[in-house]
């Protein structure tokens, strides 16, 4: 996941530069979403999978 963070940051910088120069707010929004997914995506996915495992484990006990 280390490479995903680096790639997302580089992509963020490139898209932000392009969006700023072309005065395109949607491209800058896309850059922010890419950065968010790149930096928080791993923690979000692991949290969801842990919660799903705990929910299925607790329901199988009943």
SSE topology string: HH
**Termini gap:** 36 Å
Q: Which range does the strand content fall in?
A: under 5%
Number of strands: 0
How would a crystallographer describe the biggest sheet? none
The global form is: elongated
* C-alpha-based Rg, rounded: 17 Å
**Share of helical residues:** over 70%
Q: Count the DSSP helices.
A: 2
Q: Strand pairing plus helix content: what structural class?
A: mainly alpha
Mean pLDDT: 90
Query: Which parts are unreliable, with pLDDT below 50 for 5 consecutive residues or more?
Result: none
Architecture blueprint of SSEs:
Elements lengths: L1 H21 L2 H37 L1
Word description of this protein:
This protein has 62 residues and is mainly α. Helix content is 94%, strand content 0%. The protein contains two helices and no strands. The chain has helices spanning 2-22, 25-61. The longest helix is centred in the C-terminal third of the chain and has 37 residues, at 25-61. 5% of the residues are buried. The model has no long low-confidence stretch (mean pLDDT 90).
